[in-house]
Structures are given as structure tokens and as C-alpha cells.
Design a protein that fits this description.
The structure is a homodimer.
Chain A: H1 4-15, E1 19-23, H2 35-49, E2 55-58, H3 60-64, H4 67-88, E3 95-100, H5 104-117, E4 122-125, H6 135-138, E5 144-150, H7 156-159, E6 163-165, E7 177-178, H8 179-190, E8 196-200, H9 205-214, E9 220-221, H10 232-239, E10 247-251, H11 253-256, H12 261-280
Parallel strand pairs in A: 1-2, 1-10, 3-4, 4-5, 5-8, 8-9, 9-10
Antiparallel strand pairs in A: 6-7
Helix pairs in contact in A: 2-4, 2-12, 9-10, 10-12
């Protein structure tokens, strides 16, 4: 059985892309405030950008906003991505950006909701509750998770930057390390089935580089380029793995608000791939 | 405008109860696997236990499990609690156990989903993303949040027990403290509108007592009595505030799986209140 990240790597090769297209149907971007409008907004984006997308990332919050109808819309959007995959002959992974995190039977229910009911291939999770809250999502190695590690918002400093001691240590490391680095160490040690990655903002290259040094093999989901304004070349230098993979760059508004979203996605894809190639020489 | 916790305290007085009735329609507890069965399971529980409930706590995961129909069921359950409140002439707060956590506009959408669309009065949140991820839920002080602090699962040790330095310090404190204590300090400092509480498991009384010493004024939501087997008297000694309030004790299966859930709720309510009274003398 293949692992989630082997699926993702296959897709990255198929489309020469590290771009993850974010599907954020924020109500202010819709013609009318309805679940149908949210769905249509996403369906159009999927159709226009699928050839350039290494993955799609629907954000659960903007669907939940519309209640039961929003939930139906989310399911339809994921089905449409599946259809596009079939049409293109290349499976495009769907990462449900839901940042869930709960214990035991509750985590089980969230996993079934995301993977079985909605049909997502991967989900973002919050690591604060520890390993047993993540396990229910890892059982099927074809499904993956990205654990929040270092987020790009100002409040990230409140907990993630605190210096911790007494946890897992990397080789030879004795000094206290930031909490987010401890999360990276734990994730690396938990990743026995190649289905755990990390969310590490692209806007703070020093942190990104530190996490890369700590977890040399993991995939990162690194928001911050595009609308959030991170510098693409610096982010790629800090975050790519030695094999030129391992970094998935989500862009939402930078594509959805462009005059031509398909063209914007193609340009993001090409720019990322171009810089990457120049670094691989 | 009143704050969420002033509403809760009014209800605690109205019903002489610190019991929070958990609404966990786990599929294994339902006669058939359907959103309607989940809804009916909860509606029956609400009807039977409302007179003894200081609050109700529906768990979002077990509704999400049923997709859009589950979302509809959740909304109907919250509406039914509102009707029971009207009938009893005493507002019973609804705490949506969803453990959300995301940044900026995304958190905004989750807040609107929970408070405006579903009609919940309070939500459980994950603190890992920091203050700005919590702010959108605090804007209306009639609505409240419980931040995960120290959970009762084994994996809680992975991050929550790590010793941190360099964060907020309590008076005179200089040594490193566990991360969960840092969360308690931050929550206490953020609670300027009386609408932030903490989730602190009742199964580890030393941790509960430590958090109480750190945050003497906050409300705690403390799972672990009932099916999870924490000792009630020890938990009350460790967690109650000096005014004999500040501790909400959720029980789910210990009530829903009882032969007579109404009677079980009444007994939990009475036992808690009895121990509390003997401590207040």
C-alpha cells in the first residue's frame, strides 16, 4: 500500500508543480452569501487551476460558515476535484484544512468525517493534544496529516516560540529549543509510515530553515507566498528538501482574486519550478 | 452587556449544579447509524437532564461524522436546548466542543458558524496559534471560550507537560514551568472581559491544583469524572474557586448509558453539590 506522500510526489512529478491551490470561499469574495455561491466559486477555481495544482486545499471554516448546506458544498467540491483528477489521469490530493485535534473516539469521528465521508486525502491537525490524538488519522497510510508547527500569524509567538527543555532532543542538542522545533522533532519520530508532514509558514525563513534542519525528510505545507507576501526564493532556499521536493506552497487569494486565476496558477507554478530548478543545478 | 461567565453563574445558581451534560452521539450508542438517530439520542437526553444541567456540551465531531445531515441535527439539538431553557425560565448555556483554532479571517468564519449560525454560547478552542486566533471569538463578551490547557489523554504529556521558559511569569516565579501552566497564565492575562475559561482534565488533581493556583479566577471545564473515572472529591478540592464556583464537570457516557439518564444526572448534580457544600463550611 502506498503512503500519502508517495501519492503527492507522483502528482508533483506529473504536473511539475509544488503549488497547492487554496479553496477559501470567503463570503466577501462571493457574489451572494450562499453555500451554492461558495461551491460555484470553488468549482470554477478547480476547473481553471487543476492542471497546475500539486494539491488542492479547501478550508473547512468557509464551508462550515454556511452550516449543513456548506457541508454539502464541500463534499461536492471534493468530488469535482476527483473528477478533474480522472480527466487529467493524475490523482490530485485534497488536503482538508480543518486544524482539528481531539482525543480517542472523538478524533476517530473527525477522521471518518474527513476521509470517509468527505473523501479528503489529508487533513491539517493541531498537535497540542499529542500523539494519541493524531493516531486515528494515521491508521490508513494512504491518508496523511500536516501538523501545525510554526504558523505565520503574529500570535504564533505566544506559545510556538517559547523555549522548551526536557522533551525529545536532536543529536547532540542540549540547549532549550522553541516549542515549534520540538513539534518538528516529534513529528519526524512519529512519521514511520510516510504520512506526517508539518505546517510551517513561509514568511519566517529562519524558522523554516530551522525546521528543515530538524526534520530533513518531512513534507512541509508552507503558506505565506502570494497574498501574504513572503519572498518565494528565500522560502524555497529555506524549506526545500535536498531532493528538491518536500515543500508545498499554498496560494489562495493570490489566485482566486487574479483577473485570470488559471493564468495566475500557471505563473505561480512556473515561477516556483524555475527557481527550484536553478537551485538544483 | 453581561459576560458569558455571568450567564453561566446565573444558571449554576438557578439549578444548584456544576454538572455539564455532554452530548456525544457516538455511532456505537445509536440504534441506527443516522443523523436523525444522533439528533433523537440528544433530544431525549436534553429533555431528561435539563433540570440538572448547568450547561450542555455537544461534541461537534459526532455530528460532523454524519456530514450535512449531522450539521442540521446539531443545529436542531441546540434549538431544543433553547426551548428547554425557555420552558424552565433559566438560560442553559451551550458549549460547542469543537476544539477549533485558526488564524484571522478563518477564525472569524468559525466564530460565525458556532455562535451565529448554530447558536452556541461558548466554544472550546485550541491555544496553539496564540491570541490573535482567539480574538474573533471574544468580540462579543456574551459569548465565551474554553481554551485547551491540560487534557486528560496520555498524549497530553507530549507537549503540554514540556517545561518552558521565557514566557509570561507569575509573581516571583523564575523556574521553568509546564507549557499548560503557561497557557493558564496567558489565559488569565487575556481574560479582560470575563469570557475565557480553561479545559483542565479532572483526572490529574496535581495539575488541576497547579492551574487553579495559576489562574485563581477562571472557570475550568474539567472532564474525567463519571466514565473516565476521576475521583470527584479530589477534583473538587483541587479545582473549585474560593467562591465554590469556577468548575464545570462534564459527564457524557456516565449519564447517557445509565438505565435512567435523568436520574443519573440528578445524582451527579446532587453528589457534586453535596461535596461542594461540605467544603464551603
Amino acid at each position: 500500500m502506498e503512503s500519502f506522500f508517495s501519492f503527492l510526489e507522483k502528482r508533483v512529478e506529473d504536473c511539475s508543480s509544488l503549488l497547492c491551490v487554496g479553496l477559501d470561499p470567503h463570503v466577501s469574495d462571493l457574489s451572494v452569501s450562499s453555500a451554492e455561491a461558495a461551491r460555484d466559486f470553488c468549482l470554477t477555481l478547480v476547473k481553471q487551476t487543476a492542471p497546475y495544482a500539486a494539491a488542492f486545499k479547501p478550508n473547512a471554516a468557509f464551508f462550515e460558515y454556511f452550516g449543513a448546506e456548506g457541508w454539502t458544498a464541500l463534499k461536492q467540491v471534493i468530488e469535482a476535484i476527483q473528477s478533474e483528477s480522472d480527466r487529467l489521469g493524475s490523482m490530485i490530493p485534497v488536503i482538508l484544512d480543518a486544524k482539528r485535534g481531539d482525543i480517542a473516539s472523538t478524533a476517530e469521528a473527525y477522521a471518518q468525517s474527513a476521509f470517509d465521508h468527505l473523501g479528503a486525502h489529508c487533513i491539517t491537525l493541531n498537535p497540542y493534544l499529542g500523539k494519541d490524538a493524531i493516531d486515528p488519522f494515521l491508521k490508513n497510510r494512504e491518508k496523511g496529516v500536516f501538523l501545525l508547527c510554526k504558523t505565520s500569524n503574529p500570535g504564533a509567538a505566544d506559545l510556538q516560540d517559547l523555549l522548551v527543555s526536557g522533551g525529545l532532543r536532536a543529536d547532540g542538542e542540549t540547549r532549550p529549543m522553541p516549542l515549534y522545533q520540538q513539534v518538528a522533532l516529534l513529528a519526524q519520530s512519529w512519521n514511520t509510515q510516510n504520512n506526517i508532514g508539518l505546517v510551517v509558514g513561509a514568511t519566517q525563513p529562519e524558522a523554516l530553515a530551522r525546521v528543515r534542519a530538524t526534520a530533513p525528510n518531512l513534507w512541509f505545507l508552507s503558506p505565506g507566498i502570494g497574498a501574504q507576501g513572503g519572498d518565494l526564493e528565500i522560502a524555497l532556499k529555506a524549506g526545500l528538501r535536498q531532493d528538491g521536493k518536500g515543500l508545498l506552497l499554498p496560494v489562495s487569494r493570490g489566485i482566486s482574486r487574479a483577473a485570470n486565476p488559471g493564468l495566475a496558477a500557471a505563473e505561480f507554478r512556473d515561477e516556483i519550478w524555475h527557481i527550484r530548478r536553478s537551485m538544483m543545478r
